[in-house]
Design goal:
Oligomer: single chain
Radius of gyration: 31 Å
Largest sheet: none
Strand content: under 5%
Length: 371
């Protein structure tokens, strides 16, 4: 390798290392891009109704903040009340279970009595797990300031991107060579369209899942049904894992009424998840974004492993954008062109060989005539 090639290789390695060190910042920037794309879509819809751009952007941002404030207003007060009641009833439930176990010891043979676990012993063995969970909770609270700062950063960047998106797109395009800039502009347009489609399909699924959860939980008589339904809808933004996480608070609150009600809540969430994954998502996302289920799961595992919870939350839009770039740049511009050039080179070699054979045959005929 020449000196210039070594310098290029070192620069590439250093660039990859710097980007890896800045991965969390890049994820926050990408989250701002996704949010700005969704709000820009809403602003364009308002502009189509005859509204000016500035007023449409302000109204879109206002509706977004109203939705966020409404979400926390619906979620936090009922959950705080119900979980406070839960902390009072859980010890009572433990006492009932312990009394029931002691009562059952009097009705069984003495040979089987040692095999029945002591509930107090189980609580003592589980104490390290409780302490670990409590320590993680304190760590989460201590890191809440960082979370707030990250959210503020995303909101500020979203406002900047939303104010003049074309200027930032032009700056990004100029990072590429001049002969490839028009191609990059087309790829960015595809990414914007796909992100808009994902946002539209995701919020349709959020609304339908939330509505089904509200109807089912209200029918079962679970407290704070509206708050649980809103939580279930928004947790649906995280495929595969989100619905599993949303069933835990619903079962915990259902436990306040009846020991058997959490089982019915679990069955309800199972059927809602099956309906969403087998009917709703294929119908909605078929017209918005086409991703294979295995690709979705693998992308979640990959992004949560390397980027944490934020990577899990942004796994689907990251996969949508990555799919477009791989398909357009790697497949169409590199692999397909390589195949085309390879075919041209093969045809050239075949023509050259045919010409050599023809010249050899002509030479052989001339030699026979001379003899």
């Amino acid at each position: 390798m020449k000196l210039g090639q070594w310098i290029g290789l070192i620069a590439l390695v250093l660039s990859i290392y710097i980007l890896w060190q800045l991965r969390e910042v890049l994820l926050l920037i990408f989250a701002a891009v996704v949010l700005a794309t969704a709000l820009n879509r809403l602003a364009q819809r308002l502009q189509s109704l005859g509204m000016k751009r500035g007023l449409a952007v302000v109204l879109s941002v206002t509706l977004f903040f109203a939705g966020v404030i409404g979400f926390f207003w619906l979620i936090v007060p009922p959950f705080a009340q119900q979980f406070q009641e839960l902390t009072l009833r859980v010890p009572q439930g433990f006492e009932r279970i312990n009394s029931w176990i002691d009562e059952q010891r009097t009705h069984i043979p003495d040979q089987l009595a040692p095999f029945i676990p002591d509930f107090n012993t189980l609580i003592g063995e589980a104490q390290p797990l409780f302490n670990r969970v409590l320590g993680n909770s304190f760590a989460f609270v201590s890191g809440s300031l960082v979370i707030v700062l990250n959210i503020l950063l995303v909101l500020v960047l979203t406002g900047m991107f939303l104010a003049d998106p074309d200027a930032y797109i032009k700056v990004f395009i100029r990072l590429f060579p001049s002969f490839y800039r028009r191609r990059v502009a087309g790829i960015l347009a595809q990414c914007e369209s796909s992100l808009e489609g994902w946002v539209t399909g995701a919020f349709i699924a959020v609304f339908v899942v939330g509505l089904m959860s509200l109807v089912g939980l209200s029918f079962l008589g679970v407290k704070a049904a509206l708050a649980l339904a809103v939580l279930a809808g928004f947790m649906n933004l995280i495929p595969n894992l989100g619905p599993t996480m949303s069933v835990v608070p619903a079962m915990a609150i259902a436990l306040l009424d009846n020991p058997w009600k959490p089982i019915f809540v679990l069955i309800l969430y199972f059927f809602i998840q099956q309906a969403e994954s087998n009917f709703l998502t294929p119908i909605v996302m078929a017209h918005q974004v086409s991703l294979l289920p295995a690709v979705t799961l693998i992308s979640q595992l990959f992004f949560v492993t390397f980027f944490g919870f934020l990577g899990l939350l942004l796994a689907l839009p990251l996969t949508v954008v990555a799919k477009i770039w791989v398909q357009e740049v790697l497949v169409k511009d590199v692999l397909d062109e390589w195949r085309h050039n390879h075919q041209q080179a093969t045809e050239l070699v075949m023509v050259s060989e045919s010409a050599d054979i023809k010249d050899f045959q002509e030479a052989e005929v001339i030699g026979k005539d001379e003899d």
